Amino acid sequence: DVKVTQSSRYLVKRTGEKVFLECVQDMDHENMFWYRQDPGLGLRLIYFSYDVKMKEKGDIPEGYSVSREKKERFSLILESASTNQTSMYLCASKGRPGEQYFGPGTRLTVT
Amino acid sequence: SQQGEEDPQALSIQEGENATMNCSYKTSINNLQWYRQNSGRGLVHLILIRSNEREKHSGRLRVTLDTSKKSSSLLITASRAADTASYFCATDAGRAAGNKLTFGGGTRVLVKP
To answer: Which 3-state string (H, E, C) describes chain A?
Structure first.
């Protein structure tokens, strides 16, 4: 079974802090994705990556950056956290065309 | 922007009943997928239907796709309390759209024992 893990289930940070969310997949997938999920807005794509050191903006990249130095790891960075970035963050990976495999999510609260 | 829109937003049924939810989308797709999310957890892939398919089954799940109407439905037969979850449709517009998935807002399903 594909396993996608995220570094934290719950995270509380202060406004202005730099925040790192880590995602690791164990199936040698080329494609990895970061989403945020908010009530009433569904899942929105922040960034995705086709390969190591490659990244593409999704629908809501503002305020975020990403890093993919190794194939199995895709990091989401909040350069200066703000309260409107309080959300559930979901990482996913994709191998063969089609389905994505999701991690358990990180619920981030910025105070 | 959301490509898929689910209907209804919420559904409450008794155990043993069938649950049907619908998804509409706006642009051409390569495939459409359905996912389940249990409360506060990640999404789990349920089923994928390609644009040239009209119906697909997987266990108690039945998915239909009507590309002329740009709509899909997910039917869960003989529901169980464990089916309580949110269900999302997601469209894949293929390489031209970067092989990304675009998710709808979801349908919350409550199955009462």
So the answer is: CCCEEECCCEEEECCCCCEEEEEEECCCCCEEEEEEEECCCEEEEEEEECCCCCCEECCCCCCEEEEEEECCEEEEEECCCCHHHCEEEEEEEECCCCCCEECCCEEEEEC
